[in-house]
Amino acid sequence: MTVAACDDLWKNKFLSSLSATKAFKNQKIYDVGRTLDPSGGTDYFVSLPVEPDAFLADVIAVTWPSAAAGHNMVYLRNMFTEGVGNLRSCAAYNLTVGSWSVRARRVA
């Protein structure tokens, strides 16, 4: 699967399931995939414990933008304006059986 196909999967399966929410309408849905590890997966789970201040700064920038003017996001990325998938996250889901939300409930 290509990164573009993975991106389409996230946008068409995950984001579309949130279409009735205010966050969707305002295009304010974020994930933690901005920083990737060497294998292409998210680095969130590895680096966050040693950089909680960077994550907090991202949360402040999302929830109170005027207080964080000029902040460069480290972990959070807007799923509408930036790529949303990565190859490791897409590989975790069976694309031929069911929707992303069904698989996510089964995995969680």
Give the key terms.
108 residues, mainly alpha, two-stranded antiparallel sheet, 4% strand
Folded structure, characterized:
- The chain is mainly alpha-helical.
- The protein contains six helices and two strands.
- Strands 1-2 form a two-stranded antiparallel sheet.
- The protein starts with a helix and ends with a helix.
- Mean pLDDT is 74; it is low at 93-108.
- Overall pLDDT, averaged? 74
Order of strands, main sheet, comes to: 1-2
Described by the principal axes of the CA atoms, the overall outline is flat
Question: Can you give the helix content as a percent range?
Answer: 40-55%
N-to-C SSE string, H for helix and E for strand: HHEHHEHH
Topology:
Blueprint: H1 3-14, H2 22-25, E1 30-31, H3 44-47, H4 52-63, E2 77-78, H5 87-91, H6 100-107
Antiparallel strand pairs: 1-2
Task: Kindly summarize this structure in a few lines.
This protein has 108 residues and is mainly α. It has helices at residues 3-14, 22-25, 44-47, 52-63, 87-91, 100-107, and strands spanning 30-31, 77-78.
